[in-house]
Design goal:
With 181 residues, the protein is α/β, with parallel strands linked by helices. It contains six helices and seven strands; from the N terminus they run E-E-E-E-H-E-H-E-H-E-H-H-H. It has a three-stranded parallel beta sheet with strand order 5-6-7, with helices on both faces. Helix 1 packs across helix 2 and helix 5 packs across helix 6. It is globular. The model has no long low-confidence stretch (mean pLDDT 92).
Length: 181
Amino acid sequence: MEIKSSGITPVEYYGGVYFKRDDLALVGIPTGHPNGSKMRQFLHMVQGTADTTPIIVGCASASAMQVYVASAATLFNRPSHVFVPQRKTPSRSTQWAVSMGAGVQYVRPGYMSVLRARARDCAAGYPGGAVRWDVGYAVQDAANQTTNIPTDVKRLVVPVGSGLTLAGVLLGLANQGRAGV
């Protein structure tokens, strides 16, 4: 199975609204796995690392990042470790990560600084470290995706989690001289 980036994802027009189809970010991804910008970015970040290099994240209990980590680890046959706050009932994202074979660690207290410290400690246990989330690459990847947004678009709606994708979209538009969108 070969999974590869589809490049710049298409923009489609329905009912007077343009839609950026980032759900088509990867070609060859099996049914049941997420698709989109974060998976495209993980594909890039995993390439060039040793086959045994784990994918590790410390994140909020409902964060989709644990889904992407578990999926990427499964697709690329890597170990994965997810550090999330202890909850009475695990979130759906955490349950999905567990079902994909991620090593989920429940942390108390669940402060982000503590979660990230546990993830760093875990990565230190691997001789080559872990697959690093390259923020600069991820922002530039999102910026590159703005090149085919039609020039008549004056307003965008961007779903936001951490704000990283939005930062990339704003950078891409500014690079095109479209900072007013």
